[in-house]
Specification:
Blueprint (H helix, E strand, L loop, with lengths): L1 H22 L3 H14 L1 H11 L5 H31 L7 H26 L1
Length: about 120
Amino acid sequence: MNSLVIAITLFILALLIGVEVIGKVPATLHTPLMSGANSIHGIVIVGVIIIAAEAHSPLSYVLIFLAAVLGAMNVVGGYVVTDRMLEMFKSSKPRKGKDKASQDEQASAVTTENAQDQGANK
C-alpha cells in the first residue's frame, strides 16, 4: 500500500509540474515544443519492447499492443507536425539558380527539336 501511495503522489506532482511548465510556454513556441516532445516518445516504444518480454497474460498482451500503437502514433504525429511547421518557412518564390537551370534545359530541348525537324525536312 505504501508504494502505491508513493506512486500516486509522484504522478500527481509530475502532473502539476507539467501543467505549470507548459502553461508558461508562449503560444508561438507551443507547437515546436509539442512536436519535439512527441518525437521523443519513441522511448515509449522501447519500454513496450522491454515489458513485452515479461508479458504472460492476455490482458498484458492487449495493454502492450495498445501502448505500442499509441506510442507509434505519437511519434509519427510529432514528425508530421514538424514537417508541416517546416513547410511554413519555405519560400514560395522560385530560386534564381534553379530557375536558370530549368530555362537552360528548356532551351536545350527546343534546340534539339529544331535540329531534328531540320533533319527531317532535308
